[in-house]
């Protein structure tokens, strides 16, 4: 049950306008999508929740008891892969390539959406343009971001083996109409008011034709061609262990009944995070609940893999971490936080629409019209700032110089999509069709607000008289900072300041968009799950968002693509060792 402070009620936002452009760009990993509910979880999960022992968190419960008579079939393989997402499908493709006997199981009816951006160190793509990564500085950045919680031996493995991962991914993509490119990586003067390191290591997967496959579907085609398949609607229920505690396999819930799979070499959990488990999310990451107005997570990311590992004796990170984008789009006045919880435990958020351009470093003000942060930071940094402001949302403000500003700001990762998409609205005279870009006029529908004066814009933002005065003064002050090319208030880099003087003026009401949780089961450098004494549990491996030992408190806002890169590198490392 949600605490009273989180039980906020509001109305749903309007319709989205950017999905088509993002889909056309082949960027499914960042495209807006509805936050669907989970499928029925079955009696076994309900039994686990009801059977929580004293001292065991209610979100964890106990492993369900499955009667032998309920087991409808028995299977045996060398490696069980639970989860057909970025990690699971990379592992499956690599196992197929190496001739390792495996079975990959997925709770949903398709592979998970591809996260197109991933990091790899010192690849041929960057070698071609003479760029290398300062490995020592990169490891230091990861350690600093995690406040010392990361396992540097694991990080070293990822650094050393990510190029091999990239080469393998590239070879598979090439067979199925996919390609790989590197994005701009130079940030003049840094970002976020810090000298933190932004390494040249982000890659982007795309397609070369209309019938080209995204990466995860390319992996599926690859394993199909080698005689393997993904077993869909097979939901992990619990792990099996021998008397010595070694994980020997798993029990899965299928449409036909329970299936027991014996794993001769090991079980890899690549089941994602716990975004769609309201009780788990509120217990482990309350600030995330305060930061969010929407999610574009995978519906099956309900923490089941982490719970199964803990039932087998594993321990998890002490500090949560989430990947949040500052681009959830809501009607003015809509507060952050979920509206309700569905019967299956999935949080219901006030929106399912994102506005990518909100991740640009425009002026951002709270509902009182006040500037309250350096807008040059990104990911969950801005959302955490905003969570501790009235209403938990903010307004993003820009003017008719939108295109010129976007082309100057130099945003990385999927925040850079705004610049890419804007190119499609450039006119013959060199100007941009902004009405076409925003599909305006749409004020009154709760989306982008547009006005000829700042006073009218403040009215559309539903600011009261006092907040309106503050807002107008804030804009005047922001213009002064731009004129002086020095932000003495919050120290944002000069190249990311913008003036707000040229009508029409625009605003969008924004909160956090939750992509995934990135804390999980503690693992060692070989991705073995660790028990409460931090010793490996034989036969159990965790990768990606199901695993931990990397992030704490936040996502590293200048290490774009690192989460997905480490996911696939970990997955290949496990297979390499077992094969």
Q: Give the low-pLDDT segments.
A: 1-49, 441-446
The termini sit apart by: 45 Å
Q: What fraction of the residues are assigned to beta strands by DSSP? A: 15-25%
The average pLDDT is 88
> Number of helical runs?
17
How much helicity do the residues have? 25-40%
Rg (CA only): 24 Å
Beta strands, count: 19
What does the largest sheet look like? 8 strands, mixed
Structural class: alpha/beta
Shape: globular
Report on this structure.
The chain is an alpha/beta fold and 579 residues long. It is 29% helix and 19% strand. It has helices at residues 19-24, 42-50, 86-98, 124-127, 135-145, 152-175, 215-225, 278-284, 286-291, 304-311, 380-387, 402-409, 417-422, 434-438, 454-460, 465-484, 562-578; strands spanning 71-82, 102-106, 117-119, 178-182, 202-207, 230-232, 235-241, 247-254, 257-269, 292-295, 322-329, 340-341, 347-348, 363-365, 394-398, 449-451, 505-517, 528-530, 536-542. Helix 6 (152-175) crosses helix 17. The longest helix has 24 residues, at 152-175. It is globular, with a radius of gyration of 24 Å. The relative contact order is 0.19. Mean pLDDT is 88; it is low at 1-49 and 441-446.
